[in-house]
Amino acid sequence: MTSSTLGEIEVEELPNGATVGLVRCPQAPIVSTVVWYRVGTAAEGPEEGGVAHFLEHMMFKGSAAYGPGDVDRITQALGGANNAFTSHDSTAYYFQFAADCWTRALDIEADRMGGLILGSDEVDHERGVVLEEISMYESDPWDALERRVQERVYGTHPYGRPVLGTEASLRAIGSSELRSFHDRHYCPSRATIVVAGDLGVDAAERVRDAFSDLPRGDEWNRPTGRRPTPAADRRITRQHGDVARLLWAVPCPAWHDPDHASLRLTVQALTEGKSSRLHRALVEEEQLCAWVAGELSANLDPGTLSIAAELVPGASPQAVEARLYEIVAAVGTAGFADEEVERARRTFEADWVFGHERIQQRALSVAAALAHGDLAFLFRYRDAVVATDGRQLSLMAAEYLNPARGVVGWSLPEGVRA
Amino acid sequence: MTVQRNSQIRVRVRQVDGSPVASLRLWLWGGSRCESVAGLSWVTGRMLTEGTRGRGWREIAEECEALGALLGSFGGIESHGIAIDCLARDWRFGIGLLEELAFDSSFPEARCRWVCTQGIAELDSLDDQPDACTAWAFNEQLYQPHACARPRPGTRDSLASISGADCEAHHRSRMGRGGVLVVAGDVNEDEVRHAVGDRFRLTPTVASAEETFVEWRGTGRDRQEISTPAVDQAHLFAGHVTVAMDHPDLPHLEVASIVLGSGAGLSGRIPARVREQEGLAYSASATLVLGAGLDPGRCVAHVGTSAETVERAELCVREEMQRLVEDGMSDTEFEEARAYVLRREPFRRETARQWAGLIAQGELYGQQLEDPEWVAERYRSLDRCAVEQALRHHLRPDDLKIMVGLPGGAAPAC
Description:
heterodimer; A: alpha+beta; seven-stranded mixed sheet; five-stranded mixed sheet; 12 strands; 44% helix; globular; B: alpha+beta; 15 helices; 43% helix
C-alpha cells in the first residue's frame, strides 16, 4: 500500500500476468476503471497500418456477452461515461461509473479481452467510420500539419506512422488482421487494470474474479533502442487557410531517460504562463503570435519536443522563426534567471495537483506508470522535474533545442512564404 | 473612484474536499448579450489581467506564476469576470488579487490594442476550422442579431473600434449591476468569509441606464450552404431555437435530449442511426438545449461526413427527429435517459472548479444548481408522457434550419 496525494494505492500482479492497481480516493461516489494495453501503433506490422486504432473501435462492436452498441447503451443506462484512445505505445479504455455499479466495467473489459467478436459486416461498417475520422483530422489545420511534421521527424521509426492509418492501409485490414492483432496483444500479461475512487472493501477480489480466468497470452518483447531518423529535408510548408501556423519539432529523449524530466521543466519555463520566456517574448512583448505552446512527448522510445505558435495577422513567418531560434539559443548559452526557474517549478507542481483533481485523471496516471514502469516512477518523475536546477535547464536547451536537429512545419495562407 | 455600499455582488463560499485546491470566481452580470459594441464584453474581460493602477500585466503574471496559480479573465455571453485556481494554501492571495483586478484595473490603451489584435487572430483561426466556422454560421442563422449569433470577440470592425476607456466604462457599469464572488475548495468557510468581509461591497457608482437587450430573430433562411477550408469533410448542423434555463420544460428536454443523442457514447438515436447503422460519420451528436441560459438554447444535430453523404445524413437527422416526435420513446428509453441525467450529477461535483462554476451559474440563473437534491427532484418528478408532450411542443422537425459547410473553399469571415 502506498499513501500518496492521489489516494491509497495498492498494486498486485495476477497469476496470469495482469497488473492491477487500486486507488482508493473516496471523495466522490465515483469509480473510474482503466484497462491499459502496452501496445499501440508502434507494434503494427508493415501491412497493418492503423490496425491498433481500428481494433480500438471494434472493441465497442460486440463481444461474447455484449452485442454491438451494448457497451454504450449500458454505460448510458447506468449514468456512466466511456471512451478509449490509441497512441503509438499504448491503447487504453476507460469507464466512469457511480460507486454502486462500477464493477460492470470489469465485466465488459474482461468479456472483450477474452471474447471479442469481429463480424465482417461490423468491420466493413466501422472502416467507413474510421475513414471519416481520418477526413476530420485532415481537415483540421493543426492535426494535418502535425501529421506531416511527425512523419518527417521520425522517418522510418514507427512513431512516424499515422495512428489512424491511411485509406489504403485500412482497406487492406479485415476481420482476420484485427483478430490476429487482438490475439497477439490483448491478453492479461500485456494489460494493466486500474480502478480508482470510492472502491469499497472487496475491489481487489472483484478485479481478480473478472480477469483471473483469462489465459496469460504469449510473451512479447517490445523492440527497444529504436531512434527517430529525421528526413534530410527538414522543412515543410503547407498552403492552407487564413492563419500562419508554426510547428517546430526536435527529437527528445524517451520518457524514462533522466534528461526527460529536466527537459520537462525546460518546456515549462519556455511556454507555460504569460511570464514564460517564449510566451512573454513572442506573444506579450513583441506581439508576433496570438499564442505559443510547448509539448514534450512521453514515449517509450525517444520522442519529440514541439513548439507550436499561431501568428497574428501581418506577422512575418521568417521573423517569428528567427526569434524562436534566437530565444532558445539564448537559453542554451545564458540560461534562465533564478526567478524564471522557480516559477517553472511552482507552475509545474501546481499543474500536477490541478491535473489530478479528477478521479479519472488519477486512474489514467497510475495506469500509465504501472504499464510502462512502476508506480514509484510517477512520483519519482515529478520529484525529478522539481529538482532540476537552472544549469540543467540551460544544458537541456543547448543539447536538444537545436534548429539543425529539428523539423519545422509551416501552414501558411496562399501567397505567404516562410 | 466614487463608491457605494449597496453592491449586489454576492459572496458564496463552499468547502470541497479531495484536492488541496481553491477556485475563485468573480462573475459580473451582463456579458455580450448586453454589450453596446460587439466584442466589448470579451475585450473587457480579457483586459482585467492587463494591468492595474499599481502594476502592469507582467508583474501580475509573475506573482501568480510564482505561486503556481492559474489566472484567467473572460467575457462570456452573460457575464464577464475573473477566474483564479490556486493551491488551497494561497486562497488569501487569490482574494486579494481578485479585489485588485476588480477595483483597480487600469485598462491601458496599448494593451487594449493588443487584446483586440488577439481577438482578430482568434476570429481568423475560427475561420480555418471547418466545424467551428460552420457552427457559427448556424448560430447566426438562428440568433441574428442577438449576441448568441456571433463569436464572443465580436467582429474585426468592432474590435478595431473598442478602446481601453470603453472597457473601463463597461466594467464599471457591470460592477454596479451585481454579480457573484465564489470561493470553492479545500478551505475553511468561516475564515474565507471573514477575510472577504466587506471588500467586495465597495463598488463604483454608475449611472443606472436601462439595459438594452437585442432579441434574437435569425436570418430567416431555412437552408444554407457555405464553403469551408476542409479538405474533404462536410459539416451538417440542423436545428432551431428551443428554451431558456428558466423554462419549466427544460428538464423534460434535457431527458429527451439523451434519447436523441447527447448521452454516453453513441447510444442516442441520431448517433446510432448516422454512425452505428449507416456508417456515415465519425462525429455525430444531437442535443435539444445547447447553450440554454438567460436566452433560449438550441436544438442541434451535428454530423461530420463526406460531401457525397451529407444529404443522406440530413435525411437521417430529419427522420429520427420526426420519429421521436410522432412515435415518442419507449419506457426503457425514458427510464434510461432519466437515470443517465440523475446519475451524472456526482460527476458534475467532483472538483473545486466544478463547484465554483455550479454555484456561480446557480446565482446567475436564480436556481439551486449546487443542491443535488433540488436538481435530482426536477428529473425524478418527470414521467414519459410529460417528456413526450414537451418534445412535441418544442422539437419541430418541419421547421429545421439547416447549415452545411462544404469542403474545398475559403471560409466565410466569422
